[in-house]
Write a structure and sequence with these properties.
Layout (H helix, E strand, L loop, with lengths): L2 E6 L5 H17 L5 E6 L10 H9 L14 H6 L2 E4 L2 H10 L7 E3 H10 L12 H13 L19 H23 L9
Helix pairs in contact: 1-2, 1-7, 2-7, 5-6, 5-7
Length: 194
């Protein structure tokens, strides 16, 4: 089954929001055929819920993560995922160290979006199972030395910050998630009523 794993540090702030947004976007596009989306943390707060501020900021953007339960990433999770999307370069690098055979399918969110946007666009009729092929194209582009914007790879960690920081992160993740789905599966053009 096609699946996407979203990774941050504690799996209580950024990755639960990104997981919820990505799951909702894919479900809106593919219904019950959507890829499975999960999340975990490199130093996950195993069994904890998402931070209250994350839950609130996500809810303000129409995404419900109230039932999220944090998990610590395992090699099996990474191995079984078709794509691993990290919130920061440190997470991507940590995965490469403990699971080197999966580095080819592990990207920061911003890195992957920029790679996908540098490739020829996918026609909007792409199917959910085309994910692996699109990930291979992004990896091939990365191997050519495409750097995108190496000074802007990370989504900042809002832990311990005021609610407005969580709102800013949720807004940022919402924007990048839309671009990710369009990059993976093609941009949908909404019909204009006349």
């Amino acid at each position: 089954m096609t699946s996407i794993l979203v990774v941050c540090t504690g799996n209580i702030c950024r990755s639960p929001i990104a997981e919820g947004m990505l799951r909702d976007a894919l479900a809106a596009r593919f219904g019950t055929n959507a890829p499975v989306v999960d999340s975990a943390g490199t130093f996950g707060m195993e069994g904890s819920g998402a931070q209250a501020e994350s839950v609130r900021a996500a809810a303000e953007r129409g995404v419900d993560i109230a039932r999220h339960v944090a998990r610590v990433i395992t090699g099996a999770m990474v191995e079984h995922a078709t794509l691993v999307v990290t919130m920061a370069g440190e997470h991507r690098d940590a995965i490469a160290r403990f699971s080197p055979d999966t580095a080819h399918k592990t990207f920061t969110l911003k890195e992957l979006v920029r790679l996908l946007e540098s490739l020829p666009a996918v026609s909007p009729g792409a199917e959910p199972d085309s994910l692996a092929a699109r990930v291979e194209e992004a990896e091939a582009k990365r191997e050519t030395g495409f750097a995108g914007n190496p000074h802007d790879l990370d989504v900042a960690d809002p832990l311990g910050m005021p609610i407005d920081s969580y709102r800013a992160i949720a807004w940022e993740l919402d924007e990048w998630t839309v671009r990710l789905v369009d990059g993976l599966y093609g941009a949908l053009v909404e019909a204009v009523e006349r």
